[in-house]
Amino acid sequence: MKILIVKLSSLGDVVHAMPAVQDILRALPEAKIDWVVERGFAPLVQRCQGVHRIIASDLRRWRKTPFSTDTRRAWSVFKLALQQEPYDAVIDLQGLTKSALVSWLARLSPGGQRYGLANQTEGSSFEAPARWVAHRAITLPAHCHAVTRSRDLCARALHYRVPDELVFGLLAQQDQTAVQAQAPESGLHGVVALVHGTSRADKQWPLAHWRALAQRLDGAGFGVVLPHGSPAELQTAHDIAQGLAHARVWPVLPLDAFTDALATCSGVIGVDSGLSHIAVALDLPHVQIYNFDTAWRTGPVDESKVSPRQCSVFAQPTPSVDAVWQAWQIVLSNSVHA
User: Fold this and answer.
1) Structure letter (DSSP) for residue 95
2) CATH of 2-158, one of 3.40.50.1100, 3.40.50.2000, 2.60.120.1200, 3.60.60.10
3) What kind of architecture, by CATH, is found in domain 176-336?
4) Which of 131, 8, 2 is nearest to 59 (CA)?
5) In this predicted model, what pLDDT tens digit does every residue of 281-298 receive, in sequence order?
6) 196-209: average pLDDT
7) Is 29 helix (H, G, I), strand (E, B) or coil?
8) Where in the sequence of the chain do the CATH 3.40.50.2000 domains occur?
9) Which of 102, 297, 317, 327 is deepest in the core (most CB within 10 A)?
10) C-beta neighbour count of 105 within 10 angstroms
11) CA distance 205 to 188
């Protein structure tokens, strides 16, 4: 059976869709799964176990200059790749006009069908064309986690039961250069990544809090590494690292290299961002910081376990350093005893 997954963006949403691929392969081991995704996220999807072919799009860029020669040429190349093979099932996990367009353009095998969302779920975007394009639009509970949303849609489309076990299937490569670069210095317990950057200012944690947390980690014998993705985040990373003996600011890394480097860390503490969701998918000890009570739909989904390795911390206007530190001690202890 040939299946096409349409999940274009954003980074966190792409990560949240990965367990659906693992579910499909468990239920239908012979399935051949392709995935349409924005080009910037393709290196990460390449690390998703079970994805046969990645069809990269540049819809975000094309919309800025829709009638230029370069856009028209690139669009033609994309359509050829999209329609290279017929599919028995095309599943739009995004529910937007742009993903509906991709789903509609994909080529179906005889008897093949398109599946999509019939409704909006809390906190997610939804546009009517997603329903119109689908041969079968599937209604999901309005209150559901982003991971559950994708898993349930695929299960109902392909008629299998969602497995009890949650597996992301995100594979990191044990590149020796990456491992050596992140290896803890002599006498340190390990390295903790602080994911402080986010595209939304209202999701940020105060700089003073980050500095206090980094100092506690340093005092507890952990090195600190600081990723960043913009000049402003780079400055914040240097501000957090200032005065710490065992802090290192990472260079800007491609998503695949970032995934490899993150996988070598002892754990991650971060705000609600795509990079933090990668930490969840890698099953690293992780604390996710929330200024809004939205962790139920995007945060780590194993909080109901007796001994979670990952958890979220929520408070308004923002969680305290003590609350985040206490959560870190819990997930670290559970990781050691797992």
Assistant:
1) -
2) 3.40.50.2000
3) 3-Layer(aba) Sandwich (3.40)
4) 8
5) 999 999 999 999 999 999
6) 95
7) coil
8) 2-158, 176-336
9) 102
10) 14
11) 26
Rounded CA separation 161/226 (Å): 40
Can you tell me whether residue 136 is helix, strand or coil?
strand
Q: Which of 206, 187, 182, 337 is nearest to 268 (CA)?
A: 182
Please check whether residue 169 is in contact with residue 50, taking contact to mean a CB–CB distance below 8 angstroms.
yes
Q: Which residues contact 186 (CB under 8 A, 6 or more apart)?
A: none
Distance between CA atoms of residues 26 and 153, nearest Å = 15
β 32-38/2-6 pair status: parallel
Token duo for residue 153: 């849609």
The identity of residue 96, as a single letter, is L
Token pair 């490899």 in the structure block, residue: 260
* pLDDT over 60 at 179, yes or no: no
Residue 4 φ/ψ, nearest 5 degrees: -115, 120
Cα distance between residue 282 and residue 265, in whole Å: 11
Q: The dihedral of CA 290, 296, 297, 300: what is its sign?
A: positive
Tokens of 184: 């803890």
Kindly give the interhelix angle for 97-105 and 69-82, rounded to the nearest 10 degrees: 60
**Phi, psi torsion values for 168, nearest 5 degrees:** -85, -35
Which phi and psi (to 5°) does residue 27 adopt?
Answer: -80, -35
d(CA 194, CA 192): 6
Cβ proximity of 207 and 240 under 8 Å: yes
Give the model confidence (pLDDT) of 32-80 as tens digits: 999 999 999 999 999 999 999 999 999 989 989 998 999 999 999 999 9
Pick from 288, 251, 330: nearest CA to 15: 288
B/e letters for 56-95, b = 16+ CB within 10 Å, e = fewer, are bbbbeebeeeeeeeebeeeeeebeebbeebebbbbbbbbb
226 vs 213: CA distance, rounded Å: 13
